[in-house]
Design the sequence.
């Protein structure tokens, strides 16, 4: 049993509004093995915890481990060659249409070995845990053939078994129709072969579909989602990113756990998500890199929709794994308060992964996943952006990073 004292704590419970972070001054957290055993103010610490091993928090801010609930972690190559063009004004969709964009990453990913993809992703995860990230959702979607999609999901399985961050794998076979196949053939492959294979081998918890004019229609996504649900997968969706395609309404209708991007969500879409309890995931790095208008997170929060924030780390629309950077952008682009952003990367991100019972807040019985941020306040942390204010990352009760 170990405790950490001399800390200011933000518990980040699911209860209350998105801006209620449940602050506690001069707090103590006790953990036993991988689980939190006691949380409270120092003045109420039970006798039996007084003499156990103690870590001095040095008055820093103790928070639940950060959760990056949307990434495309494993991919081959980069796309810096397209960056200059995109900055000069060539639209993301135009580059995709001529075989660049996602297709060029598919080529590089198919050419990469499973070991290459594994070691590259391992390095990214090592940097993410230094930033305070403790759980990462990881999508396939750059293989787009049965073998290559399984290769990516096997990389995530190995990562989950061989390094400390919690990995939540998502099958995104429906990311783009690959060159050399018809839409019908490819959708059939996803539904008849890929999803059953993913389910049979328990290689993913979620199925995602990129619903967009340049990717999959709502009709196609309906068939894919139906099969995924039948096979026991939960649903996440990329929707309303580059235009409004009634994606939020579709996500609500099919009971998706989260709907992500949403820059072009409509008022009807907001109301539908409120009714279904689908979490909205803002990806401000992707908004910025694709020069889209920012998601109106205020409208969602004010309507009572939970909003999470993630990096969307991928080689095209969001080539950065820096979750604290995405958090600062959640304030400056999405107009969320620092407190709302804190919940967006802890308890709301846990909700976007269907995991509020085990992670996302500092509560008795939850996993001992936490970070220690060297800052006088939540506001100051997000306002004064630095390369890394994290001092300590603990996952499952084990120290996995120390500054
Ligand atoms: O989340 N929107 C679709 N997929 C990714 C981009 C993938 C890429 O550009 O390689 C996204 O933005
Ligand atoms: Fe994405």
Sequence:
């Amino acid at each position: 049993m170990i405790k950490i004292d001399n800390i200011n704590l933000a518990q980040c419970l699911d209860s209350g509004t998105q801006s209620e972070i449940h602050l506690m001054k001069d707090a103590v957290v006790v953990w036993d093995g991988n689980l939190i055993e006691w949380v409270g103010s120092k003045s109420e610490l039970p006798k039996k915890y007084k003499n156990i091993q103690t870590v001095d928090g040095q008055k820093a801010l103790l928070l639940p481990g950060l959760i990056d609930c949307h990434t495309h972690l494993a991919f081959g190559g980069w796309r810096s060659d397209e960056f200059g063009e995109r900055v000069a004004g060539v639209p993301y969709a135009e580059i995709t249409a001529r075989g660049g964009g996602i297709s060029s990453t598919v080529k590089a990913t198919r050419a990469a070995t499973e070991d290459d993809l594994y070691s590259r992703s391992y390095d990214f995860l090592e940097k993410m845990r230094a930033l305070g990230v403790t759980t990462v959702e990881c999508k396939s979607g750059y293989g787009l053939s049965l073998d290559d999609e399984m290769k990516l999901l096997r990389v995530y399985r190995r990562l989950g078994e061989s390094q400390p961050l919690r990995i939540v794998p998502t099958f995104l076979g429906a990311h783009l129709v690959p060159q050399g196949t018809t839409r019908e053939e490819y959708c059939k492959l996803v539904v008849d072969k890929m999803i059953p294979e993913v389910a049979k081998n328990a290689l993913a918890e979620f199925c995602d579909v990129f619903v967009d004019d340049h990717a999959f229609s709502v009709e196609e996504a309906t068939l894919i989602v139906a099969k995924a649900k039948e096979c026991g997968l939960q649903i996440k969706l990329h929707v309303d990113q580059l235009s409004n395609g009634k994606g939020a309404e579709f996500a609500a209708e099919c009971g998706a756990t989260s709907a992500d991007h949403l820059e072009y969500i409509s008022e009807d879409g907001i109301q539908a998500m409120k009714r279904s309890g689908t979490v909205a995931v803002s990806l401000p790095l992707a908004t910025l890199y694709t020069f889209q208008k920012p998601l109106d997170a205020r409208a969602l929060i004010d309507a009572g929709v939970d909003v999470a924030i993630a990096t969307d780390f991928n080689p095209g629309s969001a080539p950065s794994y820096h979750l604290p950077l995405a958090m600062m952008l959640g304030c400056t682009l999405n107009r969320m308060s620092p407190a709302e952003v804190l919940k967006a990367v802890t308890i709301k991100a846990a909700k976007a992964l269907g995991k509020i019972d085990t992670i996302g807040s500092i509560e008795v019985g939850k996993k001992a996943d936490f970070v220690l941020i060297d800052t006088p306040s939540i506001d100051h942390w997000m306002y004064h952006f630095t390369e890394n204010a994290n001092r300590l990352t603990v996952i499952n009760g084990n120290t996995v990073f120390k500054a």
